[in-house]
Amino acid sequence: MRVTGTGHASMRIDTAAGSILCDPWVNPAYFASWFPFPDNSQLDWETLGDVDYLYVSHLHRDHFDAAHLKRYVAKKATVLLPEFPTSEMEDEFRELGFTKFLKTRNEEVVELDGGLKIMIQALTSPTDGPIGDSSLWVEYDGVRLLNQNDARPTDLSVFAELGHVHAHLLQFSGAIWYPMVYELPQSAKTAFGKQKRERQFDRTWRYIDDLKADHVFPIAGPPCFLDDELWQFNDIFDDEGNIFPDQSVFLAEYAKVGGTNGIVLLPGSVAEVTTSGATTTHPQPVEEFFANKVAHLEEMRERKRPIIEAEKASWRHPEVDVLKELKQRIEPLLDESIYLAKGVGGPVRFDLVGYDGDSVESIVVDFPGKQVRPYADEKVRYRFRTERALVEHLLHIGEVDWVNSLFLSCRFSAARIGQYNEFVYAFFKCLSTERLQYAEGWYDEHERAVDAEDITIGGWTVQRRCPHLKADLSRFGIVDGDQLTCQLHGWRFDLPSGRCLTSVGHKIRAHRVGEEPAAAEVPQASQPSS
């Protein structure tokens, strides 16, 4: 099995039975904040993109690079789709011109042509990527590889049970905005950053120890920051609190815990992996490359400067009435939200800095009040400060995921009272009805330690959440005779039997009002999830 490094979390896997390109990312992401490091833009992507299969782990834009996929990846490639809760990934691929898909089932091994085997583990909580993350396991001729990339499963036993793994590729560096953007004294930022950096490594060591693969490849980071405004986030200033260590730092830290099997892939590096070892060739010496890291970054900064400036020039949309648009887009979602709104529990304030760099418009998303309104001098537990132009752009393009855009850009500052609140970011990741309904249903199913909730509709008592994607049937359910239709996605159910008429395996719990439910239909109390 040949593994060619193509930058960040991307690689091309070649076997005699077929080739797989994974997570190709080249263009800047998140408001031109993140770039792949080392630079991979000068690889021969015409050749690299001519593959049999394409796998993208999730929709974060440092993994799903739409412009690059459209231009360079052969549309004859079969897309290996994780079993995610929504159709967003497939929809995006189809828009790019891909027509061949293999819809995998979670943790189910599939044998492709020529004896090539794959398995995809999909993680589907609202906190996994943008509604989903995944890992890819590959086997050919006795050689096994796990591309874990960014995914954070509870354990790796499902992969270990398939046989000894020879190549384990996983994330080790930061991919978040914390603690850099928080309005804290520098000493506190450094202390929190040091803790996060250590936790990142500890998590990586745990995964490595769980799988015990022959060879470990650090991938999926770090990004580099080439905009002058963000340059300080690069790990080149001997800052022990920087959360973006590079591959050379990984090797040094790994050695401290006894690791001797680490292999770094530069863009263009090739590793030939067998059951008995791995031979790697590089386009240039790895140690020499990282010894000259600052020079490489400075050269990239000048070369990419026109790209950054062009993107910045596209963000302003003064014709957008931000308050009006936010009310129109967010208030209907607040009305639908139960778990997320309760979880946030208070107003969230956005301070929008005008084009002049001084004027500020403050807008509140009031979760308890279910409204978007001007700030009224009240205390808020979460506050964000960013350029008005960025929010104008998000509204102009109809962005449904502010985490996978504004927040990961690090082009904002934040302040909070109290502990981190995952519901704040979960909500702003779900600015569409489909995403919000899924997140609400997930929390309904996983966070409650009591019996599932029922509703009465059309003379029937039915479970509140659609078995498909957890839509709220009190809002989207319609009963016609003995059939219920969920209008969110058009799925139909036969109520007397509970059988789904649209797909296999999604039974609904239902009984006529005034009749006792069948014994098997009485929900049993479950234990709280961890």
Domain tally: 3
> Care to count the β-strands?
27
Helix percent band: 25-40%
CATH C-level of the largest domain: Alpha Beta
Unreliable spans: 522-530
Report the sheet-strand fraction: 15-25%
Name the average pLDDT. Answer: 93
Cα-based radius of gyration, to the nearest Å: 24 Å
Shape: globular
CATH fold group of the largest domain: Metallo-beta-lactamase, Chain A
Coarse structural class: alpha+beta
Main sheet makeup: 8 strands, mixed
Distance between the termini: 38 Å
Q: How many helices does DSSP assign?
A: 15
CATH architecture of the largest domain: 4-Layer Sandwich
Pfam families: Rieske, SCP2_Rv3818
Domain Rieske: 462-522
GO molecular function: 2 iron, 2 sulfur cluster binding; metal ion binding; monooxygenase activity; oxidoreductase activity, acting on paired donors, with incorporation or reduction of molecular oxygen
Protein name: (2Fe-2S)-binding protein
Written account of the structure:
One of its GO terms (molecular function) is metal ion binding. InterPro entries: RibonucZ/Hydroxyglut_hydro, Rieske_2Fe-2S, Rieske_2Fe-2S_sf, SCP2_Rv3818. Residues 462-522 form the Rieske domain. This is (2Fe-2S)-binding protein. The chain is an alpha+beta fold. The protein folds into three domains: 2-308, Ribonuclease Z/Hydroxyacylglutathione hydrolase-like (Metallo-beta-lactamase, Chain A, 4-Layer Sandwich), CATH 3.60.15; 322-442, SCP2 sterol-binding domain (Nonspecific Lipid-transfer Protein, Chain A, 2-Layer Sandwich), CATH 3.30.1050; 450-512, Rieske [2Fe-2S] iron-sulphur domain (Rieske Iron-sulfur Protein). 28% of the residues lie in helices and 24% in strands. Strands 7-6-5-3-2-1-15-16 form an eight-stranded mixed beta sheet, covered by helices on one side. A six-stranded mixed beta sheet has the order 8-9-10-11-12-13, covered by helices on one side. It is globular. Residues 522-530 have low confidence and may be disordered.
